[in-house]
Every structure is written in C-alpha cells, then in structure tokens.
Amino acid sequence: MFLLLPPLPLSLRLCGETKTKTTFLIYFLYLPNVTSLYSLALNFLKKLKSFFFTSFELKRVFFFFFLTMLSNAVVLAAVLCLVVLSPFAAGIRTGPGRITANEDGGRNEFSKLGPFMEAPEYRNGKECASSSANRESFDPSLVHIAMTLDSEYLRGSLAAVHSVLRHASCPENVFFHFIAAEFDSASPRVLSQLVRSTFPSLSFKVYIFREDTVINLISTSIRQALENPLNYARNYLGDILDRSVDRVIYLDSDVIVVDDITKLWNTTLTGTRVIGAPEYCQANFTQYFTSNFWSDPALPGQISGRTPCYFNTGVMVMDMVRWREGNYREKLEKWMQLQKKKRIYDLGSLPPFLLVFGGNVEAIDHRWNQHGLGGDNLRGSCRSLHPGPVSLLHWSGKGKPWVRLDEKRGCPLDHLWEPYDLYNKHKIERAKDQSLVGFASLSELADDSSFL
Predict the structure, then answer these.
(1) I need a surface site. Which of 66, 136, 409, 414 has the fewest CB within 10 A?
(2) What CATH architecture does domain 90-368 belong to?
(3) Distance CA 124, CA 398 (A)
C-alpha cells in the first residue's frame, strides 16, 4: 500500500484542484482491492517459487506485476475524474460569502485583472419573496442568469451584473451562473474571487468549462473572436448547470440591462418552444449560409417551410427541462460536425441555433435586445438605437464600449454603458477629467449620471 501513494499527486494534477476530495475517495475505494490482490499474488508466487522460479526471477516477475497494478490505479483515478465524473464542467464556488484575493495564493494573478471597485449593495424591498437558505435549490423566487466569464471580457461582465442588480426589483433573488474557460489566462478561481470582491453579497456559482468538449467541433469564422470555445458554452448549459435549474436567462457579456430583469424572466414559452428571444422575421437566410449549403440537394429542405426569422443568441430565455429532454445539445453538435466536413456557414455559433430553432422561437419584445451597438464589423462605425422603448442594450459586433471609451473614441451610446463600469482606474481618470474628484463613491457618481 505504501508504494501506491506516489501516483496520487499526479492524479490530483490530472483532475484539477476542484476534484481533490473526489480523487482521494477513488484512491481509498481502490486501495483495498489493490492490496488484496497484492497479498494474493504474493502467496501464489511463493507457492510457485519451488517449481518454476529462482529467487531472482520471482522478484522480477513480482516487480512487473506490481508495476501493472500501479499503472491501473493511476489510469482508473484519471479516467473516472476526467471522463465519468465531470464531462462538461465543474463548479468551484457558490455565494454569498466574502473571500480575499490572497485566499489561494492568487494575489498577483488577481491584481493583473485591474482595479475594480466594490459595487453598491442592492437589497430586496419588502414586497420581494424571500428565497430559501439553499440558494442553489429550486426556488420559484430565484431568477437564474447564465453568463460566460473570462479575463478579456471581464469588465463587460461585471458591468452587466451591476446593471441587472441596479434595476432588479428583487436583486437578492437573482442567482448568477458564470461559465469560465478552463485555460483562461486568469484561472477560474481567481475570476471567482474578483467577482466576490466586487459583489460581496452576490449569489453565484462559477463552472469551469472543459474546452476539449467543443474544441474539435469549432471551425474557422469570419472573426477570430467567434472561434473562442467559450462562445459555445451556451450549447452545453443543459449539461453544465445543476439539474435543479429548470429555466435560465442567457446573457452575453457585452450587455447592460436598464429594466427589471424579472419582466424578461416571466416570459411564457408557449407550446413546446424551448427558447424565447427577440425575433427579426423576413430575414434573408442566404447571408447566413454558404453556397455549399444551398447547393446541397438535402440541406435547404431542413429549413424549408419555416418562417425565416433571425434571432440573436446573446439574449435568450431557455427552458432547460425541454432542452435536456429534446437533446438539443446533440442537435447543435450535428450541425457543427457537418460544418467541419463541408463549410456551410461563416458566422461562428449562431448558424447552428438558426438551423435548430429558426421559426420556432417564442418572440420577445425587441426592447430586450437592442443589438448591433458594437458597430459595423468592417468599418467600425457607430450605430443608433432601433425605434421603440429599450430594456437591454447589446454591443454585439466588433466594437466594445470599454475599449472605445478608453481610447477616447467612444460612440454616443457607449456613454450609456459607462455608469455601470466598475473599473476603478477608469472611474478615477474620468472623475479627474470632469473635475468630479469631490464625489466620494461610485454610488454618488452613478446617482449623478443620467441614463435610460
């Protein structure tokens, strides 16, 4: 048994820091079987010694036998951990509960992400239903929101969370599910710490998305940013999120919400519809698919008879029960597999959703996704709002408001995003530029700002 201990650190490294307890359990369950075989083999070989083996030969046979058992122990632990236990993601932290930047030795990595100030604390009013003590269990008072979390778009993600909380009628009843990349330049645990330091009372969980789940299904796109594996995490929400989550709002990281998120949450998905989103019908589907698609004798028939409605996947209300029952992850993957064989589209993660759900989406008011504010992808020009009321602004496209504002070339609508920005250095510089150094806190700055 003593000789079996050295492979343990190797298996722990293979499994990752989030599965340490599980890996130890595997070892303790497996070791008794190995030691029993060890004793049986030793007794058996001793009996055979007088017939077939010299003492040296016996030691050599026994040595190779034991090496085989040792290898099996490592392989079993690694396979169970990497394949069986968590095929898509692993959760690493829930909230609320304050943690510090030093907790896991991540101080340097934490500081590299930039200075973010703590957001104002938003509390429920008396009219809000109190949620259960177990904030991850099913609770009809909870609003579940899923977002990706990575170092490149972190500033946008924190601004989006801030906007949701600021305008929510019951902010303490909003639960965030963050999906972080396995190999981000900032570890998921450090990203989790930064979220906690910015929103001390926020209820959330961070999941580590295993990029090898999707990496072999991704094909080149017209924009390199669209090839990021994390863009495809929404395809796997049914597998990543806890089974107790039967409905979720998916939001991109480049949005701000300027209305009560409960209104979007209460969207009714009629019939057998799985997702709801603002639709744009009479769309020209020829621009979303290549000539390889339209020239194929069978593929155009897959969407014939459907209403040609485009929808943006950056804002969706999703029924996770119907999603899982309908195996929609597999349906999306089939189109991605075909894309790898013969290029049928150019636009990243969107076309598979159009092929699977186009014409069968619960139409939500356009106010909930005023998208395209990132500007024209080729010319980078600014865009204006669509006519009508606004509940959510979405900077889809190449241009991001935090980048343009920092470069002093912000579009007019970028200044609507700015009051939700929690990037400390940016706020300090802005305050100095505008002679606002007398303001004591972000909440005072935000209260002084006018926005939708």
Answers:
(1) 409
(2) Alpha-Beta Complex (3.90)
(3) 36
